Amino acid sequence: MCPICSKIYQSDTSKESIDDEDRISNLPGNVIDCILGKMPLRDAVRTSILSKKWRFYYLAIPQLVFDDQFCKEVNDFVAKKNHGIFSMFELNYQFNEIVTKYLMLHPRRIETFQVCFPRYLTSTMVPDGGSAVIDVNKWILYLSGRNINKLTLIYTGVLNYRHKLPSYFFSCLDLTFLKLQNFVILPPPKFKGFLNLYQLKLIRVDFANNCFESFLSGCPVLERLSLRRCSGVRHFNISGSKLKRLHIKAFDNFESISLENAPNLTEVTVTLERLVIGLEGGKLISDLVKLVGSLPKLKILCLKWKVSAGLYCY
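Structure tokens predicted for F-box/FBD/LRR-repeat protein At1g13570-like isoform X1 (314 residues):
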């Protein structure tokens, strides 16, 4: 072969080798984790069939999100498996089994864990008052030893049910973000607080034994706080030198709101789900206006209260 032809042949073969190179598989592990973490869980699992190298990549995703889309896919899977016949037991079993096994097989640190319990789980209660989601405490126990940063647990469907958080939940000391719906909070006596918690969202959470103030005081770096229809709180004594955003949607069973110990608030939204009428109602609104008026850094203020059934004032 002449020298010119030889060079042409070599350039062609090198070009083919570049085209055939699996560049995605050669990406750093943290980049692959980031890519898979942005995909729906079902699609991330499907990457396991690409090659032997990809077989277990999906198990190491640091962000585990079992959201409404995941619940729908479980529902579709069970319906297909049972030839269109709805089976509550099968749905419960499959949901628990998938989440539990995923956690047990996860080989690395878990940064984010989000579960939105489907209605077919939370609408089924066992005779002793427990929940159909029997593995939730097991999940929390596992996460408590994995340095979890962001945790979201949302019960839907059963308005009057609150799941009591186990004591080892309060061992998740690396939490920076926490969102709970329909749970009971009762910290153990030795609990010192979530010292790294930056954002807290609580919906229909019950603070047992009037633990609201002590729980909040144990979150010294908290900047964003949202409380919606929480019970067990008669006095919303909000404290926190770092707190900047506060959203409260309160039932009619509280007596007062105090913001004196949160001087750095820049945004305050208060919604009162109670009839604010007469002298008592006028005094309540007047006290709130005076209270927020004393906050030197306040930029956004929204007060909303009920004056009659279905009618609110701003």
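The chain has nine helices and 15 strands.
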